[in-house]
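Whether sequence alone determines local backbone shape is best considered at the level of individual chains. When preparing material for the folding task, we compiled for one chain both its residues and its backbone structure tokens. No coordinates are needed to read the tokens, only the vocabulary itself. For completeness, the protein is quoted in full, as a sequence line and a line of structure tokens:
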Amino acid sequence: MQEIKIYHSVWRTLLLLLCGAAFTYASVMILMDSRTNFFMNIIAVIGVVFFGLGSLFMLIMVVRERLAHQPFMTITDKSVIVRGTKAFVVNFSDVQSFKMIHVGSQKFVAIHYKPNVEVQKMEDASFLGRMVRRINMGVGDAQEHLGTTGMSMKIEELFSILNDRLKQA
């Protein structure tokens, strides 16, 4: 089978960047206004940091994806390679099943590893990593999830492809 490459959606990312730029601009305008009080200045600084750095991070990530031709997610016959803030590989031989879950309005693909792999991943994780994995187990019923928001492929299609590849592995 062929390798499937999934990128972030350019239009969704552009819309997110425009919204982030608008909020950053509004925060800067609040900072420049001499009539604002201390509390509003603190809120404006938080807005600049959060929206400004968030927009910059998204821009860098998408430009890097497109220029380097490195997709966010690559699905091969044997694994799924995810290149996010922290890159990781999901081998189909380690996976027991995939499950589509909803957390609020967001959709995720939960990765249910085989019991021995789950124990090993928990032992290999740092203290903070173990905490995050326990929270993920409580919220999403799996240690790891594949986020699908803002990608060029719909979650249903991704879920179908992952299950097909899992059956063939």
Notes: The chain has a mean pLDDT of 89. The CA atoms of residues 24 and 48 lie 5 Å apart. Residues 38-68 form the longest helix (31 residues).
